[in-house]
Every structure is written in structure tokens, then in C-alpha cells.
Design goal:
This protein has 688 residues and is α/β, with parallel strands linked by helices. It folds into four domains: 8-54, no CATH class; 93-262, Thiamin diphosphate (ThDP)-binding fold, Pyr/PP domains (Rossmann fold, 3-Layer(aba) Sandwich); 302-458, TPP-binding domain (Rossmann fold), CATH 3.40.50.1220; 475-653, 3-Layer(aba) Sandwich (Rossmann fold). It is built from 26 helices and 20 strands.
Amino acid sequence: MMPLRPSKSALRSFHYQRYIASGRRPFTSSVAAGISPHRFSTQKRSQSTASAAASDPRPAPSPAFNQDPQRNEVSPLQNRHLDLDDSFVGLSGGEIFHEMMLRLGVKHVFGYPGGAILPVFDAIYNSKHFDFVLPKHEQGAGHMAEGYARASGKPGVVLVTSGPGATNVVTPMQDALSDGTPMVVFCGQVATGVIGTDSFQEADVVGISRACTKWNVMVKSVAELPRRIQEAFDIATSGRPGPVLVDLPKDITAGILRNPIPMNSTIPSLPSAATLAARELGMKQLQSTIGRVARLINVAKKPILYVGQGLLAGPDGPQVLKELSDKACIPVTTTLQGLGGYDELDPKALHMLGMHGSAYANMAMQEADLIIAVGARFDDRVTGSIPKFAPQAKLAASENRGGIVHFEIMPKNINKVVQANEAVEGDCAENIRLLLPQIEAVSERPEWFEQINYWKSRFPFSLYEQQSPDGPIKPQALIEKLSDLTAHMKDRTIITTGVGQHQMWAAQHFRWRHPRTMITSGGLGTMGYGLPSAIGAKVARPDCLVVDIDGDASFNMTLTELSTAAQFNIGVKVLLLNNEEQGMVTQWQNLFYEDRYSHTHQQNPDFVPLARAMGVAAEKCTNVADVEAKLKWLIESDGPALLEVFTDKKVPVLPMVPAGSGLHEFLVYDEAKEQERKALMRKRKVNF
């Protein structure tokens, strides 16, 4: 026979009697006991059921868990009435999007329509408040937004549909994340009721874009739409700029807001005493760090400023850089993305450093006893081999007379690649402004600049196989001629590039004098970036001459955007260097893979009639004698135009620091070695 299980009430009574027997009261307040559905008897148990009588109740005060709860009738918010915004009431989600664009001062949007985003496109139909640029591909829209942001300093805005419309913007978002470009992407999404059912053009865009954005979100209700849009712009432009994505389900953009919403997404509060103390401590630590940095600069014999794009985030960045360089007489080298941050006609300019940077900038980095990195992240194309990087600065650090100082706004970039002896976290321009009063004025550094000038004379950028009157057009000479023809208007000339050899030649042989005049894909190295980013830059600054210096392989990837330039009469100029190969890859195959050119020669279309078919004026140049006249035609032409220039083949970009080498272990042009290289290519039956 199965034993009978005791009932729950019997078990409770048993446990209660154990509490009484032990002389303890149950963990239940009198109020709680009064309202409990299982009230326990407080009657004294008989000796038959307990070995000892219950003890008397403990005198007051009893333990807190036995006391009646005391309620605070004063609410801290009882006198506060949240301000409600009823200006959006009655508007659809699409109309709220349009209104928020007006409030945020958006003047241009790049995008492509589709089913899931139609409520938004319907709301902006015939809007007179901003211009919409329709590309031929969503990737083009993303790169246009990047070019717009880089030229103007304002976030570029992209509007695309769900599924493939959103996934086509992944490459521009990753590109913007790598280079710190502010961009806000709005993409359509299927209705919330069918999310997760693999419905038509459904994609988990929030999941896909998590790794290539600063922040992303799916809007869950019409009421939160204004707040999410505001957050997107705030996050894209704060700290280190970058891309954000807002996913807009179709039922949200089609829905109507019925009730007012709070003016603020959160209730503002005064900072606590702990917060104020932390701020004060942080400022004291910053002042202490800046004091130590000033001491290092004041005792350094061979300092160098290594400047990246982070300095260009603020409008006064280039100005404070010049003040520091002039006051302490410090030479300046920049990264690819930092070009234009310092006037390259200044005698203290060392131009670009790194794998294809100037030999004298690389030598100066290796010999400097103090490296002051400003808004740069020590990426591998700049440092070369880390164990071989900056030996003199490391030696000076061990003797407390130098080292590496890093000004950086993004904490994760500090000590990520190179260990800094001093790190100054925060806005680079603001912190340099704090540093300047503590810097001792130095009129000259004769020994240091004598060494630098020697390197400049020995390894000039002009060291390449010179142009012959009847020979093929040299790409270096072509870029130098463009630089000369625009010398009087450098502040109104913006250069964009694709990715490849032409990108490096543009960086080396064009003279950069003003910020936001060099727009290129650096961290990700996206081929096809040049033309759409030029369109975006021209939209942002229509008064400027915008020239896309491109290569044939890179240009092939987004050339359909020529039709976009023609449709909207966006007057970009394309200088197309055609060597009929993927030049940067063939350079590596020539140097390191014994001229095994595996799939690096493509068949190009006839670019000139193709451009004309798209409504773009186009010319071709094959002779050295015609270069100057053709370039003048390109610069002075009305509307979009293309100039295709057939350049010499198998021309290496030099200087070059091979992978795994130190910055001082670079290759430069040597006529004898160049003849040996060509003889070896002939032996291998290479056509060039």
C-alpha cells in the first residue's frame, strides 16, 4: 500500500511549529500575516505537540524584517509634470521621419526605394526641404554619404529598403567604421508581425550590422521613433564619429501616432556628488598628464608629430596643430587620412608616412626621441614591424627623456598596437589647446632639421623613372601636373580616389594644404569608392572642384554612378588612370611571386563612349604632349566629365616598406635595379 503524502497545509503547520519551538517568530510582518491567504494560528501549542513553550515576543524595536513597512508618502516627482510634445500627434511614422530630418537640419539624403520603406518615401514625396540623390546601387548611396560627411563634417544620411537594400550598405558602413566617418543609415524592415517568418525581403539587419556600426536599433513603436532618430544622429557624431543604423518596420512607418510623447527620452537629473567628484578627479588627472607630456616635449631633442584624421574632427584641429608645431619647432608627418591637416609647403612638413609614405618621414619616425601621436591609431600600414618600430623613442623612454605620447579620443585605441608612455584621452584639439601654454618656445632645432633635410634631398618623392617626351605617360608626372594646375585653388579642390596604385600616387605627388580635401578609403581599402564619394563631396560643397583620381580596375566597380552624376547634373571630374591591370596586386606579384599574374588583368570596356552614353562628357589622352591641355579641359568643363589617360604599365609605387620590415627598411627607385627588374620581366615573358 502506497504511503499517504502529507498535505501542503500540514507541512506549513509543521514548519510553523518548529519556529515556535525554537523560540523564533516567523519571517512575516503582522501586516503581511493579516493579508496572507494562509494565516497561521498564534495560539500557544500544548505540551503534547511541543517540548517547550513559546518564548515571549521580543521587545521593540524588533528586527527590520519583522516591522511594519513604513511608506514614504512624498514622491520626488510629485511636483514635476513631464512636458509632452504633441507636435507629432496625427502624423504617420514616415511623416515623423520627414519632420525629424527638418529639425536635425538634414539637407541631402542618398538612397533607393523599395516595398518595406515605401511609407517613408511617400512622406518625403516632393519635399522641398532636402534634396534626394538616387544612385544606381545602394552601395553607391553609402559611399556618397561617406563623401558627403568627409567633405562637410556633417553626417551623411542613407535611406534604403529591407533585405538586399540594407545588406548592400554593409560595405559602406564597415568602411565608415574603419575611417571614423559619421553616417546614419535608415533601412526598411518587414512588418513586426511577420518578423522571424522568413517573409519576402526579410533580413536580420540589426544582427548583420552589429559588427559594422557604432550602434543600431530596431524601432518597436511609432512613439519611440523621434527619440531613436535623435539618438542615431547624436551617436554618429559624438566621440569618434562612425556609422549607425535604424531599422524601420513597415507597420511602424505606416502607423499613426495617437498620443503626445515626452519631450525628453529620459528624466534629466542633477549630477550626483560622486559624479562631480569623478569629474574633478578626471580633470586633475588630465592636467597632471598634460604636465608630464609638456615636460617630455620641452626636454626632447628630436620630437616628431604624427597626425591622423582624428585631429580633423574639430574645426580648429589644424590650427592648434600649427601652433604647437611652430611654437616648439616640431616636424609633422600625417597618415593617409590625415593629409591636408598640415600645409605640405611648410618646411617642417614631412608628408605622409608608412608603407608608401616618404622615406624621410619614415626615417624621422625611427630616429625621433619623442613621438607625439595625435588622432592616429598606429595601424600596421604606418608602423611596419612593431619590434622594429621607433627604436630611439623606446630608448629615450627608458631614460625618461622621451618615448611615445598618444592623444586619442577612443580609449580602446590606446595601447592597442603600440605601448604609449603617456596617453591623453579626449578631444585631441581641446587637449592640445590645454598643452600649449606649458610648452617652451623653441625657435630652431638645427641638428634635427639638418638630418631631416639630408633625408629629403636623398629620398625625394620625385625619385622615379622620369617622363620622356615620346614615351608612355608616367602616372607620377600626371598627378604632379594636376597639382600644379590647381595650385591657385587648393582650398577649393577636393580629391577623391579609389583604392590601388593611383591612390598612393595621388597621396604622394599631389600637394595637400587644406583639411577635408583628401577623401579616400583607408582602413577598409574599398575599391570603387572614388566616384560615388566624389558625388557626395560635390553635393556637400558645390563650389569646389571635385576630382576623382581613379584606376581602371577600381573604377569598373561603381562606374554606373556616372549616370547618377549626369541625371542630377553633379559636376564631378574623373581622371581615370588606365594601365589595364590591377596595379597594386600586380606590383606584389612582380616583387614577391615571380611575375605569376594570377587573374589580375581584366578586359575593360571602352570608357569614353560608355561615359558619353551615360550623358557625361569624355575625352582620351595617350600622348605626353597632350596631358596639360587635356587636364585643363577636364578642370574647366561644365558638368560631369571624364578623362581617360593611358599610363605606363608595371610601374611600382615607391617608396615601399615590404611586409614584416621596419620603417627604415624601405625600397626606393634605383635606375640600375629598375633595369634589372625589367630584364627579369622580359625573361619571364611579361608584357609591359
